[in-house]
Amino acid sequence: QVQLVEFGGGLVQTGDSLRLSCAASGSIFNVYVMAWYRQAPGKERELVASMTNEGSTTIATSVKGRFTISRDNAENTVYLQMNSLKPEDTAVYFCNKRQRGSTWGAWGPGTQVTVSS
Hints:
Largest sheet: 6 strands, mixed
Helix content: under 10%
Structural class: mainly beta
Order of helices and strands: EEEEEEEEEE
Distance between the termini: 40 Å
C-alpha cells in the first residue's frame, strides 16, 4: 500500500558525496525492513543497506565505512548517505520495503547515480 519514490541521484566525481532520499506515501513506522538496492549496467540487483524498525542494520561489504542508511519514521523517509564515491558505485539505486514474513515490494524507477573518474 505504501508507495516509494527515490530521488537525489546525479553525476558526481570520484570522492564526492551524495545523499539519496526515499519518500513514502504512507507510514513506515511498522514496516519491518526498509532497504536500498542498486543495479549496475549488465549486473544483478544487489542489496546495499537495510534497516529494521528496531534499528538493526546491514551494509554491503563494498560500501562499508562509506555509506550510511538512516530511517526517519516520523517523516516517512529513508536516506542513504554516500561518501567517498567510486566509479564502481555507478548504478541505479532503488528503495524498497518488506514486512515480516512477507516479500519485497514492487520496484520503482530508482534514481541514477553516476560517478566519474
